[in-house]
Design goal:
The chain is an alpha+beta fold. 18% of the residues are buried. The C terminus is likely disordered.
């Protein structure tokens, strides 16, 4: 067989009597052009209109004027139960030709594209859309708008606070699109915006008809620490806590809850700023109008503490009638530092009316006035007579002494020199502490300045010292302090302090004793009346120095005065005076 055997020769094939054999080439081109004109030019990823060709229980065949028809699942036409061949529907071109050469269409995606176009158009033009509330979610509701699930925040549901979101589930509501996030296909809608727009006209109408003193009804929209905002039907008014009740209101939550219906009166408004001030207590009679005439200055009255400040107490005497106790009128003591230590909110106490002004609605009260001024008490002088002993509390410390409070309003000064009978105290704080209790003896009374002079109650240790520190005895001592030109202070046993003249500080080596040195000291002089002990170290190795004993005053016989050097001095002064007077007289004669 030749190489060409078995190869079909189309040129030699006789086409006579076959399909298309009757058409010339020109006629075939004309027919192809005519067929091409019947086909539509479609592009991938676009929405086009198609015609239903046939319907089966599984699929719907749709023609779009392309060279082939598309097959779409019947489930995508559930919303069209009356669908029949010949109906027009919009479809989405997913692929003009897949691997099998078929046209791929989708009605579901066509609906989604059209829905997004509607939502974007609604956002741009503020168009109102209808939505079905599908379910509740965290912070709001899911609303189906144009087959797309959108989010309706709780704050955008209504102008009034919504406490129960579940009541909206399954209901159809109108919304406007306020935000589209294309990154995650998230759409945010609002129903509140429609309500606010609708009420804007009502606001202008309400403001134009407002009058001071007008009584209105509204709902509690919001509660803050300073008041409550009341929705008057499209416009909000502020009900300040001071205008809620004649009694003190610590927080509006004590009286109101969100959504509560209230009756209020207009007490002021500003049309430019659209601010309305409301009141509730003004609807009631002023409590001062019913204040009994028996309430007068000087009378006592009971009340309840409603507030405690650093400067005093607020006392409610009757609902809506409040008085004030200044801190200085709480106690006669000037050391009442923290009022909260003595009084609590809610306590019922008795007070005295100090001043009363019914026009300005002010009452000044006092507590200490109920007991009277302790300095004006008839028993004061006998109670705090000189020499009496009392227990007191250290209230203040100064460089010159300590102030002791014996009772509220009764205070005395304990001078630093009276803090010890045996040694010097540099500062009261060295031996006393604030709030410490001490036993004090009244040494003097100054009623004009309301002061007592006090001393510490202590045993007279100098009686015992007189036996221990007899003149000539030797004791160990430590030099505490040196006084230039005068000597030094030495501490002996039992904390007793003695004085050493400067020349008696000399040691055997001729050096002067220094602060902190412990040496032997001999008592040179013991003065019990002056509470002084004079010491010497030098006398120990120089016995020529004689110690001195305190001389006791001699008692003189009555009616007889012995002439001493001092009396002779007075006589000489009298003689000199007499001579001077005689000389003056003689000179005048000349």
């Amino acid at each position: 067989m030749n190489a060409t055997e078995g190869v079909f020769n189309w040129d030699q094939y006789d086409n006579t009597g076959k399909l298309g054999s009757a058409y010339t080439d020109q006629e075939k081109e004309a027919i192809a052009e005519l067929y091409g004109a019947t086909l539509s030019a479609i592009s991938q990823y676009e929405v086009v209109k198609g015609s239903v060709i046939s319907i089966t229980h599984k699929d719907v065949i749709v023609g779009v004027g392309y060279k082939s028809d598309g097959l779409i699942a019947a489930s995508e036409f559930r919303d069209l139960p009356e669908l029949k061949p010949g109906d027009e529907v919009e479809v989405y071109i997913e692929e003009t030709e897949n691997t099998k050469g078929q046209l791929v269409l989708s009605r579901k995606k066509a609906k989604l594209v059209r829905a997004w176009e509607k939502i974007e158009h609604a956002l741009e033009h503020g168009q109102v859309l209808e939505g079905l509330v599908k379910r509740r979610t965290k912070g709001g509701l899911i609303v189906e708008v144009c087959d797309i699930e959108t989010f309706l925040p709780g704050s955008q549901i209504d102008i009034r606070p919504v406490l129960d979101f579940d009541v909206f589930v399954g209901k159809t509501i109108d919304v406007v699109v306020i935000k589209i996030n294309h990154a995650n296909d998230n759409v945010v809608v609002s129903h509140k915006a429609l309500t606010e727009k609708k009420l804007e006209g009502q606001k202008l109408e309400i403001m134009s008809k407002l009058e001071k003193g007008q009584i209105l009804e509204g709902y509690v929209k919001n509660i803050t620490k300073f008041g409550a905002f009341i929705d008057l039907g499209g416009v909000d008014g502020l009900l300040h806590k001071l205008d809620m009740s004649w009694s003190r209101v610590n927080h509006p939550e004590e009286l109101f809850t969100l959504g509560q219906k209230v009756r209020v009166v207009v007490i002021g408004f500003n049309e430019d700023k659209k601010r309305i001030s409301l009141g509730m207590k003004q609807l009631e009679e002023h409590p001062w109008d019913s204040l009994p005439e028996t309430v007068q200055v000087g009378s006592t009255i009971k009340g309840t503490i409603t507030n405690i400040a650093d400067y005093g107490l607020f006392i409610e005497l009757m609902p809506g009638v409040e008085g004030f106790v200044y801190v200085l009128d709480i106690s006669w003591s000037q050391y009442l530092r923290d009022i909260n230590e003595h009084y609590k909110i809610g306590d019922t106490i008795e007070t005295c009316i100090l001043s009363l002004d019914r026009k300005t609605h002010k009452i000044s009260l006092g507590i200490k006035q109920l007991t009277g001024d302790p300095w004006e008490n008839d028993a004061f002088l006998s109670t705090y007579a000189v020499g009496t002993t009392h227990e007191g509390v250290v209230r203040n410390l100064t460089h010159f002494g300590a102030f002791i409070e014996l009772e509220p309003g009764i205070e005395g000064l304990l001078h630093v020199s009276r803090l010890s009978g045996t040694k010097r105290i540099a500062h009261p704080g060295d031996v006393l502490k604030l709030t410490e209790k001490v036993e004090a003896v009244v040494l003097g009374i100054n009623c004009e300045n309301r002061r007592l002079s006090l001393g510490l109650k202590q045993e007279n240790s100098w009686d015992a010292c007189e036996k221990i520190f007899q003149v000539g005895t030797i004791h160990k001592g430590t030099v505490l302090k040196k006084i230039p030109g005068r000597g030094a202070i030495v501490e002996l046993v039992h904390g007793i302090e003695g004085q050493v003249p400067q020349q008696h500080l000399m040691k055997v080596d001729g050096q002067e004793a220094e602060v902190g040195e412990e040496l032997d000291f001999q008592v040179m002089k013991f003065a019990k009346t002056d509470k002084k002990i004079i010491l010497s170290h030098k006398i120990i190795f120089n016995p020529a120095i004689e110690p001195k004993v305190e001389s006791k005053p001699k008692s003189e016989p009555k009616g007889k005065i012995e002439k001493t050097s001092s009396t002779r001095g007075f006589e000489a002064f009298a003689d000199l005076k007499e001579k001077l007077e005689q000389n003056i007289k003689g000179g005048s004669k000349e």
